[in-house]
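Dissemination and training. As part of the outreach component of the grant, students in the summer workshop were shown how a complex can be specified as a set of sequence lines and then modelled as a single object. The example used during the hands-on session is reproduced here so that future cohorts can follow it. Participants entered these lines:
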Amino acid sequence: MAMIELTDVTIRSGPFLLNHVNLTVASGSYAVLMGGTGQGKTTLLEAICGLRQVTGGKVVICGQEMTRWKSADRGIGYVPQDLALFPTMTVREHLEFALRIRRVNRLTIRQRVEELSEVLGIERLLDRRTRHLSGGEGQRVALGRALAFQPQVLLLDEPLNALDETTRNRLCELLGTLQRQRQLTILHITHNREEAIALADQLFVIEAHQICERDLSFLQTTGSDVVDLNEGVLR
Amino acid sequence: MSDWQVAASPGERHRAGSDLPFLTLMSGIGGSYLVLVVAMLAADIAYTSPAHFSAALTKPEIQSAIRLTLISCTISALLSVWVATPLGYLLSRFQFRGRWLIDTLIDVPVVLPPLVIGLSLLILFHIPQKGGNLEQWFQERLGMRVTYAQPAVILAQFSVACAFAVQTMRITFDQIDSRAELVALTLGCRRSQAFFHVVLPQAWRGLIAAFTIAWARSLGEFGPILVFAGATRMRTEVLSTTVFLELSVGQLEAAVAVSLLMVLASMLVLGIVRLLGAGWR
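and obtained this result:
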C-alpha cells in the first residue's frame, strides 16, 4: 500500500515551478530523495506536510486525499533543514509540545517523553534550553519533537547535514532503527551517497524539476556521466 | 599578467595614512548635537533649584496632573500594545494586496502635525451623522463624556503612541524566525496556538519596548490633548499641558521644574528600552 502518493502535483512559488510531479512511497518504506541544490526538494517536502499550497494535482497520505488539508490536520512529522527549534522552550517542552496541543493526559506525556528521550539519548538534556545544544543534539531534539505524536509519516530535510562523521553515523543508525521498530514511512532528503546507501529502500532523484524513481543500484554507479550526489550536483 | 610586480620591500608599499582626521571630523560634527542636548538640560537644571522643585510638586494642580499623566500614559500604552501586537504580527507575516496602504495609514499619525490630529479627533466626535454625533452617542449610550474630558486625553495620546508601538512590534515579529511557527503547525497547532505558544514568548522584549515607547510618546503628547481634551486645571491637565499653563501665567520656575520631571521620566523609559535592546542582541 502507498503511504505517500503525489499525483501530477504542480507547485508554483514566484518564478519557481515544480511541474507534474508523481511520487509514490510504499508504507513502511525508507525513501531517499536526492538532487541538486535549487531543484525543489524542500519545496516538495513542504507541500507534502501542508506548509506550501499545491496549484494542481493530488496529495494522498495513507489513502486519504489531503491536498487542501491544513498542515496541523495531516499528522505528518517534519524535521526541517534548519531544525527551527523553539528558543524559549526546554528540550522536555519540545518533546511534550505536540502532545500538549492534542491534550494528551499528563501520565502519557511523561511516559512518552521518558521513552523518546531514552531512545534518542537525550535524557540528560531534558531541562536544557536549545540555544546551547550541539548540532547532533539539536537534530535529536527536532526528531523527538516530530516523533512525539507518533506520526506514521516522517519527512526529514537533510537531517544529518553539517554533522561530524561519528555523529552522522550514529544518527544514521538511529534513524534506521526507529524506522524499522516503529514501521515509519520516511521521506529523507540528502546529498550524501553513503547516507542513502545505508538507509534507502526507495530512491528518488529530482532533476530539471522532475522526479523519477531509480533503482538502488543507481547509488553504486560511479562516473561523471551519472550523478555526483556527494556534491549535490546533477550532471 | 606579465607586468605583475610585487613591491620589493615593505617601505615601497602603499601607506593609507592616519584615520584620526576622519574620526575627529565625524566626532566633531556628530558631537555638536550632543552638546546642544546637554546644554539644554544643563540650562534647565541651572535655572531651577530644589526649592522650586518642591514648591511645584506640592501644588495641587501639578499633583493632579502627575496622577492623570501616570494613569493616562499607562492606559494609552496598554491600549497601544493591545492593538500593535496583532497589527504588527499581521504586517510582519502576511503579504496581501493593499498592504502599502495600511503601512501608509499607520505612519499618518507619525508625520501629521500634532494639532491636526487633535483637530481631526475633535471633528470626528462632532461631525453630524444620523441626527447626532459620536460624542452624543458616547454620552447617551455609555454615559461617558469624551471631548474635553479625561477619555479625550487617553484617546489623543493613543492616536499617536499606537503608531510607534505598531512599528516596534512589527520589527519584533520580523526578527522572530517564522520557521519555528510553521513547524508548530505541522505538530498540530492552529495559527493561534502557534502564535501564543511559540511566537509570543519570543516577543516579550518587543512587547516591553513597545509599551515603554508608547508610554514615552504619550508623556510628550501636547498638541492633540490641547485641542481635543483642552487644558482645564484639575480635570484634563497632564504634565505637558502643565508646562504650557505655568508658562502662560508667568510661572517659569514651575514650568522648568515640571519639564525636568518629564525629562527624568523620559530618560528612565529610554534607559529601559536601551537595556532591552542590549539584551535582545
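Chain B has a mean pLDDT of 90. Students were then asked to discuss how this feature might be tested experimentally.
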